Give the backbone structure.
Amino acid sequence: MEALFSFLYTNIDAIFILILSIFLGIEVISNVPAVLHTPLMSGANAIHGVVIIGAIIVMGHTSPDNYPALILGFLAVVLGTLNVVGGFVVTNRMLEMFRKKK
């Protein structure tokens, strides 16, 4: 338990920024009008593509015996890929709503 408190104390700035960015993200996303969701979804897909590439690079620099880092990197790649694919599916469905019916 002492190691946890030591970790929290040494990284209090990063934890504060993380919590602040979570609240800021929730506030920004909740105030976006419905018309802008499709362009923002495409932008988010591009950002998650960068996350996938970053996770692959970090996994490449990790030593082979560092299993927690490899597992977290693998999860980041898998979840980022699912997020990108799901985002493109949702964007495509939203764009289908605006096409003329035959």
